[in-house]
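Holo prediction — histidyl-adenosine monophosphate.
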Amino acid sequence: MSAPLFQAVRGMNDILPDEHLYFSFIKKVVRHRCRQAGFRRITTPVMENVELFQRGLGDATDIVEKEMFVFTSNSGKRMALRPEGTAGVVRSYLQNGMQQLPQPVELYYIEPFFRYSRPQKGRFRQFHQFGFEVIGENDPALDAQVIYLAHRINQDLGVADKLQLQINTIGCKECRGAYREALVNYYIGKERSLCGDCKNRLNRNPLRLLDCKVEDCRILASIAPKFENSICDKCKAFHALVLEYLDAFQIPYVKNPQLVRGLDYYTNTVFEFWSRKEGAQNATGGGGRYDGLVELMGGQPTPGVGYAAGIERTIEYMKESGIRAPSKDKVHVFVAQLGLPAKKRAMTLIPKLRELGIYTLGAIGKASMKAQMGLADKFKAQYAIIMGQIEVQEEKAIIRDMTKGSQEIIPYDTVIEVLEKKLGRDKLETHRLWEE
Ligand code: HAM
């Protein structure tokens, strides 16, 4: 077979129907849990002015330095495909006067994002995140609530046991400033042992040296000055309360003083969900507090805290854990017919069953009965309703249990009633839920 003429762009994948079962399930869980927690949905454009990300995420971050899809628009403006969601949500918060709303404003999103990084396992150039942001208050209870919501979603998706919450505080601007200085001093004279990236980061973003994955850098980082010696009393107390609330929620966590995250907007709390598996490096999601971001974007000083998870990575964990997404495509009934009168009957019966939330398929073409039953098998229909000329004349229909292979003849006007009973109310309720 020759190669197809066109291929999807490198690092960008089709989401095929089987994969969509997982996407739909995750979206449904996220919508349900977020709504339940009082969050409202927001969608921002896939593209923003590049300065929004440069300013918001930080010029010296990997994402801004080398991972953005940047281009010049027809009118000469520098644009970027959004690499993440927080900067756009904060822009929208300010642009749409959400400061006037009762605070905090709680928003969630489920969207595609774009990063021009080297494609590898769990890393794509177009990927999807669900995320939530709480803007307008800086109570440590909110940090814990955001983490609780993320944990609750992980539980619903069946991956909570596979993941471990890693948490740290990186303090406020003041205490972090003092710590940064201590770090830079520590690394003086050790530059030669650092990897190329860390050498570059040393003056621009020294905190990132702490979570470098290169062996030599990790050894140096493990004996670097600890933030706990620089943290101010206020940030210390704030962090202690976040942990206390997590204990109250009974969410297990690992305190990780080396966790700093790759975005400059964070203050105080930072956290990630990691795989418990040895050697696994990819976090499924991460977040933290960003008390300086709104002001950085030109607003009044306004605190915020949020989280985002990668949908593709979450699906990977679900699959690894043997979790199958429930399929809303489960076919309950296949209606097979032969001859014009039976065909007319099938054409009215099919939409009636669908209205009731019974997932129904039928072959309205000219296929033979054998071919139609073959289709019913192929779609794994639970039941088939079979009607030919005789059944129509006698006001009857044949109902066939496709798994058992048994069948019975029933009066046509009882078809719906019999099907509802055979399928069971609970199955129909589930189906209706999916149809929401
Ligand atoms: P992030 O850690 O950059 O945080 O991304 C969150 C999650 O998105 C990651 O843990 C990962 O699962 C997924 N992800 C990131 N890049 C890729 C990629 N190239 N391919 C596949 N999945 C990826 C943020 O984006 C912050 N905005 C989170 C946040 C919200 N902080 C506060 N509010």
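READOUT: The first strand starts at residue 40 and ends at 41.
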